[in-house]
Amino acid sequence: MRKRSQRLWLIGAASVLALGAVALAATALQDTVAFFYSPSDLVEKQVIADGKSARVGGLVEERSVSHDAGGVMIFRITDTKHTVPVMFDGIPPDLFKEGQGVVAEGKFDAEGRLIASRVLAKHDENYMPKETYDALRKAAESKEPVS
Amino acid sequence: MIAELGHLLAFLALATAATQSALGLTTGGVAVKRLAVATGVFSLLALLALVISFVRLDFSVALVAEHSNSQKPLIYRIAGAWGNHEGSMLLWCVIMAAYGAGAALFMRPDMLRDRALGVQGLLTTGSLTYLLLASSPFTRLDPAPLDGAGLNPLLQDPAVALHPPFLYMGYVGMSFVFSLAAGGLIIGKIDRDWAKRVRPWALTAWSGLTIGIALGSIWAYYELGWGGWWFWDPVENASFMPWLVGAALIHSLIVTEKRGGMAAWTVFLAVLTFCLALLGTFLVRSGVMTSVHAFAVDPTRGIVLLVGLAIAGGAALALYAWRAPKLMAGPEFDPVSREGALILNNLFLSVAAALVLVGTVTPMFAQALNISLSIGEPYFHLTFAPMMAVLLLAMPVAPMASWRKADLTPILRSLAPAAIVAFIVAVAATVLHGGFAPWLFVGVFVGAWVVAGVLRDLLRRAGAGGVGRLFRLPLAVWGMAIAHIGIGLFVIGATTETASREERTFPLARGETAQMAGWSFRFDDVRQAEGPNYYATRANITVTHPNGGIQVIHPEKRIYPAAGTPTTEVAILKTLTGDIYVALGDTIREAPGVWRIRIARHPLIDWIFGGAGLIALGGFVSLAARIRRREKATVEEQAPASGAPKPATAGAPA
Asked: Rounded to two decimals, what is the model's pTM?
């Protein structure tokens, strides 16, 4: 095989693969990206819809943690302005506490509750999920003109 | 005193590293070797000084006061030295310097070695400068506190002693591969000899990285809340990208070494691997992304890493752009050949790494546009898995193809039994799973195909000699075979675990029993217990196996008073077919005395870790093969009269 045709098939194979990968990545991104919302975003922009996937960050509302008959955990995430109900059938992280920062990831059900597949809390005393921090800051900013 | 001594030793290491780079890049010679060894020794002693400060609980050292505590067991006092940002930076410098010292001792003295040691000296100088100016581990506190704050309880685990050093052996080890690439580009000589001398270093670093990632994966598996053995967290991806590109590098080095081809591509991969390791460190340390594994995070440190990445990567790529066009192209070959197969391997591994990169950094760029999004498991399953499936289909074919031009028909014919075996195994897995799951079927099929294909290849190599001949095959063949079998077992384990794992949470009061998958779990009671530096709430759960055996397990929750934080310790029951995993959850406010207990079954989980272990073992066996061959070669050089031919390389593996 000549040098030129060798280079040709190499470039050909690489570009076919690259194009395929780009197409694959683009469709996969469209289907799987979960956008992040603060409770205020969800309520004010009315994004809650059955089957919609989202990441929600804020604080676990005080005295909001309870369990249903099957032992599924129920709590509310607040950014001090609005709240979103969450259901989680798992064991929350060790640093999950009422009044502390949290990020929940999952899909909304028909009643507008977030059925979380993952719940993240902070890791150590000095760390708060970045998204929680942003949500609280935004809520605080939007409240200021009122008060 | 010890801390000041450590500080001084770090400065000495900085001085020798700077001189090493200056001499290495100009005159070269034996002084470079001595300086490189000195840098290694000084930085190692500096780390030793820090470890001694931790062991002696010298709370006048700020780092010890912040990260240790008088109640901590000895092993965590030692490992605590690198269980924080400053200490881990020192470990980074030590390993970087150690690679330099190792190269100084083991590499043939010539231009390439000197230039590579010069570049390594530059990298070490940069790292040590950053360490000493921005994150010194030896800063004193005045007055010294009576006791320390304690290690983050989540990190109090035997894995903290091994996971970071191995990860760095990989990440930082790639720095020397980078130095060899830069050195080769500087002297304008990227040839078969260059590839031959780079490969052991690439193998060492890559195998270390494999072990480091596997240890992290095991740790995340049994630490509740870390998402299981793998969940495409940014920090996990950060280590996986250099691993993928490193794997491509190890394979392209074979082409460059055996055939002199793909030189420009190989040297590019060598540069890229270290750049990805730096990018990974940036992603992990800067806190730009929400991760469950983010420790020691500080955005200001991220900038420094990003600048370091830009300088090292930019300089190397400029050098590359200048020199690469002059590199030789190597002999011609047919698309269907060993070269062609290895190029295919490289294309797929690089594209897979690119897909992981896109999934990992897209949220970061979106953040810059004020869009907050996250990309999780589904994206990676959709993109990464198909790439790997195709790659693995080609995997058994490559080692059987001959160089330059191969005939596919006889190869495929001899692999037909492997395909049949793989199909039967995949059907069996589907039946055991209790229904057809496309990814389970495909995964088990390609995994079994790889294992059976490798075994078929080993038999072919043994030829008529039979099993006895099998043990006389070159070590290099065994290295490849072990690593590839490891990949196959890993894929079977990973897809089975992902497709058939079961998880449920049961609210249980004392004396109640939960049933899952033929197992029964009786919640007997919870008791208080005490550990060396924690208090535990320990559950007693009686487990009855499907076959009637009985065992009591003790999942627990701990409180570490020094840090005031709770942790959950799961109980794991090992069985031949997988793990039973039990975690003690929280109590239910509305129903006093009821605890939530998480029970999960992880089938074939040990195949995942065992497979990864075999991959690393295969890497080390290939390394041993290389060292052995080098010794043979030196013996022959010393005795030219014997006229023995150089060891044949024709039968060497891909």
From this structure: 0.92
